[in-house]
Design brief:
This protein is an alpha+beta fold and 179 residues long. It has 2 helices and 12 strands, in the order αβββββββββββαβ.
Length: 179
């Protein structure tokens, strides 16, 4: 009988290995969570201050902050246990926020992608785009922008980029893809 036993063990081991691979290949589905800007609380006591910092409801384990300083600066930050990562909209000249909500695509309690609507200047004209950013441990970096004018289904296009072209992206690219 020992002969048979030896034959079975490697097969069982192989079965376990295969099972482990399959569960990794199909990651947990991304859930969509919104940070509605109107549900955020102003942290700056002075209503006339040029600088505004909003504290929004948490996303996963992260606190969400939205900072704005006049027309010069706008940033979305995620804070967790003393560490802060902030969005980067440098690719968009004279950028102005127009979105009423920040759309997060979250895996478990970890934000993976951020979508936000902005306007910026390109070739002397103002363009409205949906920006798609990747959330890593170190940064919130832009991956792509989808112009709302050229893409009637811009919202769907951005979500298709998340499930398609950028599905496996986990590090910040050197340039932003514009659609």
């Amino acid at each position: 009988g020992t002969h048979m036993l030896k034959l079975i063990s490697p097969i069982i081991a192989l079965g376990f290995t295969l099972g482990a691979c399959q569960s990794q290949a199909a990651p947990e589905k991304l859930q969509v969570v919104y940070s509605q800007l109107k549900s955020c609380a102003e942290l700056e006591a002075n209503a006339n201050a040029a600088h505004s910092e909003l504290k929004c409801p948490s996303v996963g384990q992260y606190e969400v902050r939205v900072e704005q300083a006049g027309q010069e600066y706008f940033g979305v930050s995620l804070l967790k246990s003393g560490k802060k990562i902030t969005s980067d909209f440098d690719a968009f000249t004279a950028m102005r926020p127009t979105g009423q909500a920040i759309e997060w695509h979250v895996q478990g309690d970890q934000p993976v992608f951020m979508i936000f609507r902005i306007r910026y200047e390109e070739a002397g004209a103002e363009t409205e785009v949906l920006t798609l950013s990747l959330v890593t441990d170190a940064a919130i970096c832009p991956l792509a922008s989808v112009a709302t004018k050229n893409n009637p289904k811009a919202n769907q296009k951005v979500r298709d980029l998340i499930s398609g072209q950028f599905a496996q992206t986990r590090s910040c690219p050197s340039s932003v893809v514009k659609f």
